[in-house]
Amino acid sequence: MPHLEIADLSASYEKGVDVLSGIDLQVERGEILSLIGPSGSGKSTLLRVIVGLLPPDSGRMVVDGTPVNFHDKRSLRDLRGRCAIVFQQYNLFQNMNVMRNVTIAPTKIKKRAAASVRAEAEALLEKVGLGDKHDAYPDELSGGQQQRVAIARALALKPEILLLDEVTSALDPELVNEVLDAVRVLAGEGMTMVVVSHEMGFVREVSTRVAMMDEGRIVETGTPEEIFDRPSAGRTRDFVAKILRG
Amino acid sequence: MDYTFQFGVIAKHLPYLIGGAWLSLLLAFLAFWAGAVIGLLGAMGKTFGGRVLYRVIDVYVVFFTNTPALVQIYVIFYGLPDLGIVLSPFNSVLLGLTLNCGAYLTEIQRAGFQSVRREELEAAETLGMSLWQTVRYVIAPHIAKTLYAPLSNFYIWIVLGSSMAGIFAVEELTGRAINVSSSTFRTIEVFTYTAGIYVVLTVVASALLALIGRHAFRVKARIF
Ligand SMILES: Nc1ncnc2c1ncn2[C@@H]1O[C@H](COP(=O)(O)OP(=O)(O)O)[C@@H](O)[C@H]1O
Ligand SMILES: [Mg+2]
Question: Domain A4-93+160-245 has what CATH class?
Answer without folding.
Answer: alpha beta
